[in-house]
C-alpha cells in the first residue's frame, strides 16, 4: 500500500534500500567513509519530527536505536550520531552514522567534510547483505 508516500529524489539518488522496518525504509548512504544509514518513515508529507503521530515517533525512536546498535556491533563504531536535519532534503529522514576516533570528520559533524567516496560494486553488495541480515533480525524484536 503506497498511501501517498514517495521517496524524495535526492534520497533515492544517494542511497540504496537495505530493508524496511516497521515504519521506515532503511537506506544505505553511498559513502564508504562511514557506516551510514538513513531511516525514512513511509508516511506522506512529513517534514519535521513533530509531523509524526505519537505512535510513529515511538516507532522511529525504536528503529533508530536498533539501527544504532547494529552499526556499533557490526562495525565496532566508537559511537553513533543520530540526526534529523532536513535543511537540504525537506522530507523527514533520520541519519544514523557510525563514528570512529580516526574518521575524516572526528570529532566534528560529518556534513561538509571531504567528498563522499562511493562504494565499489563488491564492497557495496557485501555491506548491504550484512546490514540486511542484521537489521531484519533486529527489527523482529521491535
Automatic annotation (TrEMBL):
<keyword id="KW-0808">Transferase</keyword>
<keyword id="KW-0489">Methyltransferase</keyword>
<dbReference type="InterPro" id="IPR026026">
    <property type="entry name" value="HIT_Hint"/>
</dbReference>
<dbReference type="GO" id="GO:0032259">
    <property type="term" value="P:methylation"/>
</dbReference>
<feature type="domain" description="HIT">
    <location>
        <begin position="4"/>
        <end position="106"/>
    </location>
</feature>
<dbReference type="GO" id="GO:0008168">
    <property type="term" value="F:methyltransferase activity"/>
</dbReference>
<dbReference type="Pfam" id="PF01230">
    <property type="entry name" value="HIT"/>
</dbReference>
<dbReference type="InterPro" id="IPR011146">
    <property type="entry name" value="HIT-like"/>
</dbReference>
<dbReference type="InterPro" id="IPR036265">
    <property type="entry name" value="HIT-like_sf"/>
</dbReference>
<protein>
    <submittedName>
        <fullName>HIT family protein</fullName>
        <ecNumber>2.1.1.-</ecNumber>
    </submittedName>
</protein>
